[in-house]
Design goal:
The protein has eleven helices and six strands. By secondary structure, the chain is α/β, with parallel strands linked by helices. The protein has two domains: 21-148, 3-Layer(aba) Sandwich (Rossmann fold), CATH 3.40.50; 166-222, DNA polymerase, domain 1 (Orthogonal Bundle).
């Protein structure tokens, strides 16, 4: 009869790692990007028929264009239609895959039109552009973006720890202003004693410590 060690700790069953999902349009099934994404162990991928865009990560839609696709879709104005459709999403990104510099070297009507078109995409259509080297680079960007969606948005913190004493708290407040580090915060408190006195101080009084940053400090207080 086998004996069991009753003092042996039970091993904790680890939860399966949550993987982000990238939805891929069925029209991308022959692209090398798809094969890269399918082979990745960092994400899970689904192939669906997307009405808008080539890739979907949460509520961000991606349209992918190789340089040759970009030029042809600029000429036939197809990309304009696609960009207009992408406005339905809160976030949209255009990926341009390939070397644009080769086109710009020609310095002809196409290269000039392309520059203007890219500016229009960013400004008029409010669509950021990611330029990638090749299909591997494109897939790496998509994977990185997908993984970032799993990270919680943490509030901005100016300090590594929360101050406990009154003195530390007063310095903490002053250090949160631009261009005021620990030394200047300490000098301000030494001169004016309190936060209230510092805020109400005259510009010429502050200038002794803040120098050229005095006006910016007063502008923040008065805004």
């Amino acid at each position: 009869m086998p004996f069991h060690n009753i003092f042996k700790r039970k091993s904790k069953t680890s939860k399966p790692k949550q993987l982000p999902t990238i939805i891929i349009d069925i029209h991308e099934k022959n692209s090398l990007v798809l094969s890269q994404l399918k082979s990745s162990k960092e994400i899970q991928s689904e192939i669906k028929s997307l009405k808008i865009g080539d890739y979907l990560i949460n509520n961000t839609v991606f349209e992918r264009k190789t340089v040759s696709d970009l030029i042809s879709s600029m000429i036939n104005k197809r990309l304009i239609q696609q960009l207009n459709q992408m406005q339905k999403y809160s976030q949209k990104i255009l990926i341009i895959e390939g070397n644009l510099q080769e086109i710009y070297k020609e310095n002809n009507n196409i290269s000039k039109a392309l520059r203007g078109f890219i500016i229009s995409i960013i400004t008029n259509h409010q669509t950021p552009i990611i330029q990638t080297k090749d299909y591997k680079d494109t897939s790496n960007y998509l994977i990185t973006f997908a993984k970032q969606q799993l990270k919680p948005n943490l509030p901005i913190s100016f300090h590594s720890r929360i101050p406990k004493t009154i003195k530390e708290q007063k310095q903490y407040i002053l250090e949160s202003f631009p261009n005021i580090g620990p030394k200047k915060a300490e000098l301000l408190l030494k001169k004016f004693k309190t936060i209230k006195n510092t805020i109400n101080a005259e510009e010429n009084e502050l200038q002794e410590i803040l120098k050229k940053n005095t006006v910016a400090f007063k502008n923040i207080l008065d805004s």
